Amino acid sequence: xxxxxxxxxxxxxxxxxxxxxxxxxxxxxxxxxxxxxxxxxxxxxxxxxxxxxxxxxxxxxxxxxxxxxxxxxxxxxxxxxxxxxxxxxxxxxxxxxxxxxxxxxxxxxxxxxxxxxxxxxxxxxxxxxxxxxxxxxxxxxxxxxxxxxxxxxxxxxxxxxxxxxxxxxxxxxxxxxxxxxxxxxxxxxxxxxxxxxxxxxxxxxxxxxxxxxxxxxxxxxxxxxxxxxxxxxxxxxxxxxxxxxxxxxxxxxxxxxxxxxxxxxxxxxxxxxxxxxxxxxxxxxxxxxxxxxxxxxxxxxxxxxxxxxxxxxxxxxxxxxxxxxxxxxxxxxxxxxxxxxxxxxxxxxxxxxxxxxxxxxxxxxxxxxxxxxxxxxxxxxxxxxxxxxxxxxxxxxxxxxxx
Length: 403
What we know:
Mean pLDDT: 92
Largest sheet: 8 strands, mixed
Function: Catalyzes two activities which are involved in the cyclic version of arginine biosynthesis: the synthesis of N-acetylglutamate from glutamate and acetyl-CoA as the acetyl donor, and of ornithine by transacetylation between N(2)-acetylornithine and glutamate.
EC number: 2.3.1.35, 2.3.1.1
Protein name: Arginine biosynthesis bifunctional protein ArgJ
Helix content: 25-40%
GO molecular function, one term: L-glutamate N-acetyltransferase activity
Keywords: Acyltransferase, Amino-acid biosynthesis, Arginine biosynthesis, Autocatalytic cleavage, Cytoplasm, Multifunctional enzyme, Transferase
Low-confidence stretches: 178-184
Number of helices: 11
CATH class of the largest domain: Alpha Beta
Radius of gyration: 22 Å
Structural class: alpha+beta
């Protein structure tokens, strides 16, 4: 069986049906047997869901022991009733697991603006929190319990060594619509048994999110509920990581980034109504900021997305999107390539169109994985963004989301 959260020392979990969603699991609980360091980032949308307000405060102390997530109701734009509901989730989790309330992180996903079903969720917590277990099936239950419009569960697991000790790292995520994170509805929860001080874990999370979850887009909307939280409980027994200069910290950070990238790409591949996964590479840019802004601007363009859907090698849309990135951009120095994972064809050389076989290009763009590469020829920095195409199915699906 594929390894998951339950294979990380000291962590147990569960996923169950509380009654909010019809016939599907809608409540997940992740628990560490000891208080763990936590690093977390949250949505920058000015409309903030009630559980985000609670979790931001609880994460400030650098420690957490449980994460509880409900699906089916975002608990956003719900006012005092919703805030009280989020706090009721905290209280029920803390009481049932016999831990401090400040050690509970809460998260919600689903429809915005609906009254929060506090009673159902609290009863679900009281009934299911005692069931947290290290059985492998529980990891799958939790991964499925956080889904909304997703078509499949998103999980990952890594093993590596730190300080000569085996370290485990696992994560789950959800998201297929309202995906355009700028953190700090997309959620990701990662657990590890590495021993690391909270401030250093927070630094690692903030930095790796910038190159992973913050480089994906499906529809250009940042959710009210976006959250990425990482708990590290120290059960691996390594010497505590305290310095970003240490070799062991760099090993941990690289694997954390690998996990985040894996989950982020799964989210894009499950974009609502999408038919293609598109990778946008900006290379040889003057600096990282320029590269990242260009990659995000191109991947976020609806005109580029529709061109990808229609297998149209319309490089003008890509250049135009880059010109809207808010950074200095001179297309006359750019080489541009279009294609798929296996082969790319140059369509621009130093800003001048290159003759190519359009029928062959359409064949390349027919693949489910598309590649766009822009070579700035003006430095050494690079960035990669991932996105989906914009399809008629996406428009139809989201035109009747609540009805």
